[in-house]
Amino acid sequence: MSFARMLLRAAAEIPEGGVVFVGFHWPMLVARVARRVYGRRFLEVYENGVVVDRLSEEVPTSPCDFRFMDSAVAALGSMEALYLVLGRGRCDLAILDAPIVDRHGNVDSTCVGPYRHPRVRLAGSGGAAELGAFGRTLLVTSNREARSYPAQVPFVTTPGLVVGGAAREELGYPSGTGPVGLVTPLGMLRPDAGRRELLLVERFAGVSPDEVAATFGWPAVGRWDDVAVWPEPDAEALALVDDELARARSNFYRLPEEVVG
Amino acid sequence: MRHGMRFLSLPEMVSRYVHSGATLYIGGFAFDDPLAVAHEIVRQGIRDLTVIKSSGGIVVDLLIGAGAIRRLLVSHLWNSVGPTPAHAFRRAVERGQPPIELEELSYGAFTCGLLAGGMGLPFMPTTPLMGTGTFGERTFLPDKLATVRSPFDPASEVVVVKAIAPPLGIFHVARVDREGTAQILGPVAETRLAMAACQRVLLIAEEVVDTAAIRSRPECTVAFGAQVEAVAVVPFGAFPTDCHGYYRRDLAYHLEYAQATASPEGFEAYVAREVRGVADHGEFLARLGAERLAGLATRQERWWSVA
């Protein structure tokens, strides 16, 4: 249930008529949910140069899985997608899968533990650095475990609000870019007014202060009473998400434990 | 056309051009990934390669596990179906089995480096990466990234990437004609930049088509014959990834590979059976079976209708 709510909450951020740079993994499902549940129309741009504006029958396993290419708007190259579209500021939103994210919205998709001697080696950047450098970035994290939310990530793959102690604007990142939200199984975090750190502004029903305190490696709540509650999705929305997840599973997606059951 | 482009078999191409210790760019970005080439490199016992590839995938995971790679420059490496761990890569980086030297760039910086290489320039401004681990961590390319003051705005510091200009690149394309004009029928990712950056370009293609088919879709051309050193025709050469217009990725094979290679012993058995246990890519495909391959095929008439 919390995974479905997370996808629905993230999908609600996609603007009608917008241009959205979609990262690999959950962001692809988020884009599909936005079309199916909210009926949003928008352009999806991928780092390999694929541009699409409608739903494919099957859930693609990655942007390089061309079963979703048959009605594509464009087949460009990476330079066009990453720089001439995203870098030029043509995207309203960039959605990024964030396996490990810290209080400043820095994302680590490279390693768990020290870079030279990682306990777990992850995939690495791909275009994740560009999504964070050039995009207004919506981060999506499916994990509930505290290890996904340290105060500081061991390796900054994608730059957040504050990188190595300096504000991103001081480091040469274009103004108006950076994380705009972090969707987690507990709720939505947003940058605080000073754009220094991410704070929980909306929670899902049933999420407790203790659970929040035990999950995030920083004080992620100002006043608990100020945290809004995201309305529970209706049965129709949940059924559509379930159908999406069934399609994803049939194409070998590894879904969170709670969904697999 | 007066150039030395020639058709070779894949084994001949690999033995003639890819030597132990060489630096090799491998084309493909999780599509057009030339697994046939990786298998042939392993069969020929080539080692100590410096491999440059944008997106790792099974091709690079296999080469790492088989001990063919000493140094690796990538932007990411995984088995994207699932996604599932790239076990050989993880064993190499987490446990040094076998040891590799790993260098990384973000995908954007990687493409900008290829653009510089392709233009014959020493470096290129790229994504601002200040403060990131990718900027800070350096191994065998200590000067991969730097910052320069903008000559047009002294207050502005710009991240630049050093040119990437590999001596040799091998790319999978959809089709060629007899003159070596090569086409990809879908997204190209960084292919054009990488082909320009490589000093010498080798191609593996699904088939040779009549030049009229090529000329009916000139916008799909990624290289013309004069840019190409040699071509090998290898049907399903990019299996199990997509070759747009010809076949889709084999999702199940990605998982079969991951399961088979989850342990070092499993990896050895897999290579003995699937790679060293066959004479060539044709025999590898024959074992997969015609039915499995036919299930992936997507050949669409629109690419062949000559107006």
Description:
The complex is a heterodimer of chains A (261) and B (307). Chain A is of the alpha/beta class and 261 residues long. Chain A folds into two domains: 1-92 and 234-261, Glutaconate Coenzyme A-transferase (3-Layer(aba) Sandwich), CATH 3.40.1080; 98-230, Glutaconate Coenzyme A-transferase. Helix content of chain A is 26%, strand content 21%. Chain A is built from seven helices and 16 strands. Chain A has helices at residues 2-11, 26-38, 78-87, 128-134, 209-215, 235-250, 257-260; strands at residues 19-22, 43-45, 50-52, 74-75, 93-97, 100-101, 107-108, 111-112, 120-121, 136-140, 162-163, 166-167, 178-183, 187-191, 198-204, 228-230. In chain A, the strands form four sheets. A ten-stranded mixed sheet of chain A has the order 4-3-2-1-5-10-13-14-15-16, sandwiched between helices. A two-stranded antiparallel ribbon of chain A has the order 6-7. Chain A has a two-stranded antiparallel sheet with strand order 8-9. In chain A, a hairpin with a 4-residue loop joins strand 2 (43-45) and strand 3. In chain A, helix 1 (2-11) packs across helix 2, helix 1 (2-11) crosses helix 6 and helix 2 crosses helix 6 (235-250). The relative contact order of chain A is 0.16. Chain B has helices spanning 10-17, 35-43, 57-65, 87-95, 107-119, 133-136, 191-197, 211-216, 251-260, 264-275, 281-288, 290-296, and strands at residues 6-7, 23-26, 49-55, 69-76, 101-104, 123-125, 145-150, 153-162, 168-176, 182-183, 200-208, 221-223, 230-233. Chain B has 307 residues and is of the alpha/beta class. In chain B, a hairpin with a 2-residue loop joins strand 7 (145-150) and strand 8 (153-162). Chain B folds into two domains: 6-105 and 165-303, Glutaconate Coenzyme A-transferase (3-Layer(aba) Sandwich); 107-162, Defensin A-like (2-Layer Sandwich). In chain B, the strands form two sheets. In chain B, strands 1, 2, 3, 4, 5, 9, 10, 11, 12 and 13 form a ten-stranded mixed sheet that branches. In chain B, strands 6-8-7 form a three-stranded antiparallel sheet. Chain B has twelve helices and 13 strands. The chains are: A alpha/beta (261), B alpha/beta (307). Chains A and B meet through helix 3, strand 9 and helix 4 of A and strand 4, helix 4, helix 5, strand 8 and helix 7 of B.
